[in-house]
TrEMBL record:
It comes from Sipha flava. Residues 79-135 form the HAT C-terminal dimerisation domain. Pfam families: Dimer_Tnp_hAT (PF05699). This is Uncharacterized protein LOC112680132. PANTHER family: 52 KDA REPRESSOR OF THE INHIBITOR OF THE PROTEIN KINASE-LIKE PROTEIN-RELATED, DUF4371 DOMAIN-CONTAINING PROTEIN. GO terms for molecular function: protein dimerization activity.
């Protein structure tokens, strides 16, 4: 299983995943890869974050769950642990899979195979987007209204 993960994801992706896991376990030293990557973006001080994580670990204990951490941050409205709150938000919003990208590439391959090279790039892009975003509800009345407002492109001789 580990070999499959190593071949599927880059070393950097595995480091990020490991760092996220360690951040959620309140282990400052082990989550340094993620912290170093985002600290400048969010203006996070390493010393303050380390102190906040230490206090949280003392309050919640060694084996705190994600739900317990979340409830504690909500309780204090993110004001008591502002640096950890920012890192927590980053950690829980990072994408954990490549399924979306793979689905997009799979769709593009199906469309390109089906239509071969008989289309231009604009049409290919539009068809790909339509297929990938097919879960978005479409209002037929709006489409007809837009179609009615456009001029007729066919030329009669």
């Amino acid at each position: 299983m580990i070999n499959i993960l190593k071949t599927r994801f880059s070393e950097e992706s595995l480091q990020v995943a490991s760092s996220v896991d360690n951040l959620l376990k309140l282990k400052f030293e082990s989550s340094s890869f993620l912290i170093d990557h985002y600290k400048d973006l969010f203006g996070i001080c390493n010393q303050s974050l380390m102190s906040e994580m230490s206090v949280l670990k003392n309050i919640l204990g060694e084996n705190s769950s994600l739900e317990e951490i979340k409830q504690h941050l909500i309780l204090y409205d993110g004001k008591v642990f502002p640096n950890f709150c920012k890192m927590f938000q980053v950690a829980i919003t990072l994408p954990v899979s490549t399924a979306t990208c793979e689905r997009s590439f799979s769709t593009m391959r199906r469309i390109k195979t089906w239509l071969r090279t008989c289309m231009n790039q604009d049409r290919f892009s539009n068809l790909s987007i339509m297929n990938i975003e097919k879960d978005i509800p479409i209002n037929n009345e709006d489409i007809l209204t837009i179609f009615e407002k456009t001029e007729r492109r066919i030329q009669l001789h």
